[in-house]
Amino acid sequence: MNAAARPVSAGKTRVCPHCKAVVLESLSVCPGCRHHLRFDAEAAQRQEAAIRALEVEGQVCHPPGEDPCEYSIVVTVRNANGQQIARQLVAVGALSGGEHCTVALAVEVLPTRLPELPQSKSEPVTLAAVPEPVASPAAGRRLPDGTVLMPPGMKPKR
Questions:
Q1: How confident is the model over 35-94, as pLDDT tens digits?
Q2: pTM for the whole structure
Q3: Other Cβ atoms within 10 Å of 129 Cβ, number
Q4: CA 8 to CA 17: how far, in whole Å?
């Protein structure tokens, strides 16, 4: 099946059956729990073609000897008009004196279809006849139910 036969509806979502996060329907791997969602070569190729458009990592450090503090990590997404599309509380916690936590944010951009690859001329493949194996006395004898009778001293196999 080629990319033209199965158009991707940009932005269509579904729920990951593993972690219950809302993910893009076209993904083959959930970005949250990293479980496989589809075993489709086209979806896997699209996901491999993803571009990391934004990657930010930072560390929040609490000075030693200070009283504990609390933190909240919130992600807000806005469209081109400045309207808030989503706001998600990601994590909360507390830091004691001398502790730190690291926060990383990544945004991946996926193509809605695969780039067209030049089609190569495929030649027909012919299969050579494979000779039947010659049964040796050590190979045993196969019964209709699949049991293999082996010579004395060897265990039968199924």
A1: 888 777 776 777 777 788 899 999 999 999 899 999 999 999 999 999 999 999 989 999
A2: 0.54
A3: 5
A4: 20
